[in-house]
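Researcher: I'd like a candidate sequence for this fold, 485 residues long. If you have to choose between options at a position, lean toward the conservative one.
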């Protein structure tokens, strides 16, 4: 029987990112994908700076950037056409080293992730492979799958298995865990169009129409792609809603039939749910298999990519050293609270779009003199897990510093941990088993460390802070602990 370090079920954005990150650490990966190719129709259209940073680690940004545009933000408009809330995404590079928000076409990303995987000879992608059963053993996992083309059955062994197999995850079922429903269930129509010619009077931002009669969303997507989404009332029939007559009548205020190609019309039930367990022995779930949220914030796929980034280095560390169940359990505890905050904020945004204008989407909203309100993006930290949970810096994402040699932190240290040292500790560099940088390498490092009230910081391979060290005196103990880690 063939054996791999890791088996991944499902080659969507979560599986594709995870496979790239594990392959980057030099381990063998088998990906089992039910379909014969990627899903060629639009779904996700937005991602943020944190996610672009993960794409940078994988090495796809140079090519993929050509398929993206910088997102200008979202305006919420009430039934009288008045802007009631603004969510600007300033055209300014963030601490993550990228613009705050991008628009893209999901199939372009999936193609790019697959192209990058071809560079690794230890990665095997098996299409037309539908996983039916998974079995956990002490030291390995066995997966049973069928080839849907040849009607044959196979089994494979691996040290770890991650189900990135979407909302109806077979992995989650095999783990015998359930989704906790967080309360949002609504049917929405999603209409994707490609303009025949550019149309200047269409908004350049996302517009959320908070109108009780017809809650709706307009998305300015890449190139000539545009999307409209609208809520469907309980009694409305899906057949009527998806008829060309209904759709073009709905689009009348913005667009005429002769001006665009209708690429896709479909109905989704937007849900909010999180799986109770994400880990069972050597089996894990990630992405939509672990959580679902409505698309109002454009964060569903982003959450899956955050899962991949959190889990990849932990699995690589266990493959390199030894299996450590407690260490791996931090994957669920760290990701759960983070994703829950996104799901709950998205639900409040959904309620706002459903015209309950009084809902506070976040507590980060300020009022302007003209009566409009402005919202800032949320940046949830990691839930409890690795490091000292009382450390105020632990679990925050560390900025992608520009080094004096012209490179960035992430380019220099791809997927390894880094110790950031203040000048007072530069003689202690030799005590550390991990790569270090100090103010010889980075301009303004002393000021940055001061803002963290720290003398040293350990940054994890996924760029979150593992722990900070407050004083020169406590450094020896601090580094001794993490050298063993
Ligand atoms: C209308 C809409 C708009 C959205 N907009 C955004 C957005 O702007 N930003 C954002 O971040 N997110 C958005 N999302 C969410 C995003 O599309 C999903 O979160 C994302 O696709 C999930 O990725 P995944 O890899 O976890 O799962 P999936 O993309 O569902 O991939 C799962 C893969 O597993 C395979 N698979 C399933 N079962 C098996 C099996 N038994 N054996 C083998 N293979 C299997 C499937 O074929 C598939 O390829 C949107 C979603 C919708 C519906």
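Model: Candidate sequence:
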């Amino acid at each position: 029987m063939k054996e791999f370090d890791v088996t991944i079920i499902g080659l969507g954005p979560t599986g594709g990112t995870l496979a790239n990150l594990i392959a980057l650490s030099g381990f063998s990966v088998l990906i089992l994908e039910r379909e014969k190719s990627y899903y060629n129709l639009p779904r996700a259209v937005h991602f943020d700076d944190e996610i672009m940073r993960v794409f940078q680690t994988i090495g796809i940004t140079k090519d993929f950037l050509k398929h993206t545009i910088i997102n200008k933000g979202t305006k919420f408009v009430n039934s009288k056409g008045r802007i009631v809330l603004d969510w600007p995404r300033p055209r300014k590079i963030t601490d993550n080293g990228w613009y705050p928000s991008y628009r893209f076409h999901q199939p372009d990303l999936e193609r790019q992730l697959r192209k990058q995987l071809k560079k690794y000879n230890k990665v095997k992608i098996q299409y037309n492979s539908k996983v039916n059963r998974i079995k956990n053993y002490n030291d390995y996992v066995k997966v049973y799958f069928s080839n849907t083309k040849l009607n044959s059955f196979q089994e494979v062994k691996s040290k770890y298995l991650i189900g990135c197999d979407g909302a109806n995850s077979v992995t989650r079922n095999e783990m015998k865990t359930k989704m906790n429903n967080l309360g949002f269930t609504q049917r929405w129509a999603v209409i994707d169009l490609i303009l025949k010619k550019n149309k200047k009077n269409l908004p350049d931002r996302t517009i959320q129409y908070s109108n009780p009669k017809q809650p709706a969303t307009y998305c300015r997507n890449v190139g000539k792609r545009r999307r409209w989404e609208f809520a469907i009332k309980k009694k409305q029939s899906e057949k009527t809603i998806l008829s060309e007559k209904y759709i073009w009548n709905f689009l009348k205020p913005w667009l005429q039939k002769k001006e665009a190609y209708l690429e896709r019309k479909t109905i989704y039930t937007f849900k909010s749910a999180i799986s109770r367990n994400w880990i069972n022995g050597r089996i894990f779930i990630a992405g939509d298999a672990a959580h679902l949220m409505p698309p109002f914030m454009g964060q569903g796929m982003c959450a899956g990519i955050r899962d991949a980034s959190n889990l990849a280095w932990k699995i690589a560390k266990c493959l390199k050293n030894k299996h450590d169940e407690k260490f791996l359990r931090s994957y669920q505890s760290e990701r759960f609270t983070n994703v829950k905050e996104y799901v709950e904020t998205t639900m409040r945004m959904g309620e706002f779009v459903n015209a309950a204008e009084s809902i506070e989407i976040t507590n980060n909203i300020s009022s302007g003199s003209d009566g409009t309100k402005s919202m800032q993006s949320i940046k949830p930290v990691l839930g409890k897990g690795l490091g000292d949970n009382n450390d105020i810096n632990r679990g925050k994402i560390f900025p992608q510093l520009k080094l004096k040699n012209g490179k960035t932190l992430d380019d220099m240290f791809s997927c390894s941990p880094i110790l950031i040292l203040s000048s007072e500790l530069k003689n202690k560099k030799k005590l550390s088993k991990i790569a270090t940088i100090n103010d010889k390498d980075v301009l303004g490092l002393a000021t940055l460390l001061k803002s963290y009230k720290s003398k040293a910081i350990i940054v994890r391979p996924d760029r979150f802070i593992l722990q900070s060290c407050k004083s020169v005196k406590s450094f020896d103990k601090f580094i001794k602990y993490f050298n063993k880690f």
